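Q: Make up one entry.
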Amino acid sequence: GRQNGAVAAHTGVGQIRGHRILGRTRRSGLDLEPDLGRPVSGIEIVNCSLKNTQLLPLTLGGNGNISDINIHDNEFGGNEVSIKNNNPLTTKFQDIRFARNLHTGNVGPALRFDNVIRLVAADNFFSRFPEATENTPAIRVKDCTDVFIRRNKSEGSMLCVGPQGIVTGTIGAPVGQPG
C-alpha cells in the first residue's frame, strides 16, 4: 500500500492512539482518505509518532467529506502534514483541529490547509531544516473559511502563517511576536 495506516470510511467516534512508525517506511504515515464518496468523521489522532516516512506523515484527502477531526499531542517529521480538499465543489472538509503537535525537519510548509471550513491550528511547534527558504511559512492556508490560528511557534522560518487566496477568520501572531 501507499501508507502505513488508513481510514477510508468512518462515522461516529474513533481514535488512533499511540501509532508509531519505528523504521523508515517506503511511503506515507497515516491517511484519512474517504473512498467512493463515503465520509470520514469523528476521529481523534493522539500521541502518535509519525516521523520516519518517505512521503507525508499525515494526509487528509480523498473523494468524500471529512469532518470533526481532532489531531493533537503528536510528533511529525519530514514532509508536510497535508489537509487538502481537492474537490471543494463536491466535498467538504470541516471542523479540523490541529493542536499541541511537534513537527521537525521540513524544507517547505510543515502544515498545509486547502479548502477547509472551520479549522483550528493552535499551540504547535515547527522546527525546520536550515536549508528551508526563510520566506516559506510553517503553516500554509489556502482558500479556507472560519479559521482560528493562534500561539504557534516556528524555528527556521521568518513566517509562521502564509495565507493564500480567500482566507477568513483569525490569524494571530506566533509565540514570541507582538500582536
User: Anything to note?
Assistant: The first strand starts at residue 3 and ends at 7. The mean pLDDT is 85. The radius of gyration is 15 Å.
